[in-house]
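To: structure desk
From: M.T.
Subject: fold request, one chain
Message: Could you run this one when you get a chance? Sequence is below, nothing fancy, just the single chain.
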Amino acid sequence: MFELLAPIFAVAGGLLVGVPFVLHMLHRTPAVQMPFSVVRFLTPTLPKTTKRSRIEHWPLMLLRMLAIVFIALAFARPFQRMAIDKAATTGSADRIAILVDGSASMRRDGLREAVAAEIKKVTDSLDSDDTLSVAVFSESMRKLITADEWKTTEPGNRAALIDRAIEGYEPDWLSTRTANALLETADEVSRETTKSDSVDERRVVLITDFQQGSSLDELRSGKWPESVKLDLHIVKPERPGNAGLSLIEDSRSGRIRVRVTNSGDAAMTKYALRTFDVKGAYVGEPLSAEVGGGQRRTFSMPDAVEGQPQIMGVELLGDPNPFDNTVDLPINERGVINVAHAGSTDTNNADTMRYFLQRALDGNETDPIDVADLLGSDGVAVPPAADVHLVFITETIPANLATAIEEVLKRDGDVVVALKSLEMADSVKPLLPPDLTVSNAEVKDYAMLGQIDFSTPLFATFADARFSDFSSIRIKQYRDLKFDEQNSNAVHVLARFDSGKPAVLEYQHPSGGRVFVLATGWHPDDSQWALSTRFPPMIQRFVQMANPRRRGHQLLEVGARINPEELTGNETWTLTRPDGNLFVAEPVTNVSPPPVIEGTPEPTIVVKTVILDEPGRWTLSSENAEGPQAVSFLVTVAASESRTEPLPAGQLQALGMSPDIAILRDSTQPESNPSLAAQLDATELESRQKFWRWLLLGGLVCLALEGIYSYVLEKRQQPELA
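Reply: Done. Structure tokens follow.
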């Protein structure tokens, strides 16, 4: 059945076709006058007409009517909706590449079905000689159907390929890099040929939600092949709008907060934040979160209540698209730090160093510290526990305890010796440098710390000009520490008094650990050190140096790469995925390995990076000489994927693509014409069939015959010359 591309011309032709008929009906005067001499003197009278007219020269009228009909139909451009074998008619075929968005934003309800429908719509219009490829992209591309696979498959079996591709389509959790995928696919299509070695049309079909988070800037600087056209098919979810949840860490305070981002097309503005435990059960009362469309707000999570389960994460409730509504929160993974003290056990006596030490350690708000006394009130010594890596010595100790403390040094622990007297120095002699001599220094009035090495780990936290002034600390008495500074590589002076004599020494003990020697105590009889604001941070620094953080967390986005061996310092490690399954490392050999010398085994080069490809809590565990260590990676969906409001339809043209190349084929856009897609298809069919040429030729033939016939009639009607 034929259809008309411009039916208005057919209507006009139908009206004009009656003109010749009417003119022929109105022609009633005698056609020829014959003068006779006999009646020349008679009075002329008009001829009588009958009531019924008859058509004269009906073949001439039909030719004129046919000419009008043919010309009108030619301008109406008729076409027939039928499958056209392009290879048979033009000797060429098309190269089509379908590119499907598989990023995290495509996980919204209804998009998977919409993608399947668009793929079916495109593939149903293909001819047997067309070449098709289907790929999914997010941050990288993955082929579902290759061009070679399509060519080698029989036309009757290609429907199974398409069904397999639709079943294999599954969005991932990565961000959208649309421009890179488009440029790579267009370059591939522009260089390919079909089996007929002639390509009539090269086309990239992009099926995407075309959201604000799509990365399109590379199109501005990239070069798009002029021979390749782009068809943009925009799919929409069942319910518009989206609110996303992400983690924010304040580097100054170290606090973790959550940020709610609401898309511009969101109809909802009121949500709720609810914390959950390790089993996923909700903990506590929900927190109201009101965020307007196109806005974002940051919220602080309530502190844990005693008796409640530990909070593991937070979920955003009320959002119609929940793919980015859950984040895991940092948890206290370090546990209690055990340190030991050898000296007075009275924590309430303000004249002892134990009193001030306890208060400095109690000030740690992030990591609980438990202090174990190695000397009992009865003088009985207790060896340090196996998990102790730091010992403070503030009094004279027995010889057997000094030997036990050396075991802490053998496991790379630290010992802090605050010399209170010469008797104490003799009791800890096995822990001090062999050539070190200790004597009481002469102090006039008071001494001060004059030279401090702020490049050392102990004093690095005080390097800022606001904290580097130690002149307010008055020292009443101290011990004079003497050793060969020129030839001693194991002993370093970290601080000196204003007299130039050593105040703090760091000694690398032969057993493996470090011994810090303070020439004075921090109790009131020796100095005002414990009364200074510099004292608690220094004690805390001793704890941190002896107990480095073996457990912690990092905030990352999906798609981030980590190097487990570099992070753990160990070739043996275990990476646990958010679902609890272990990550299986697959060694990948380098593409260009170094040359192999004959007779030597071929080296294996392994890529050691791992892509964190889903949101949640990833745990990297390993074990070394310092004990087990673990790092949690709190992985969230990229914030760009939460911006789901669609880009303007003309965004591709705004980036420099020609309207003739980038065509929007989307009937769901409210500003688009619903008949645009059908009109474009009809134009393409009519341009291939071109029936108008034959109709125009028929009209010209009718006009030519009409002219010849009129000329013959005119000759016949002329009177013969006498």
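Reply (cont.): The radius of gyration is 46 Å. Let me know if you need anything else for the meeting.
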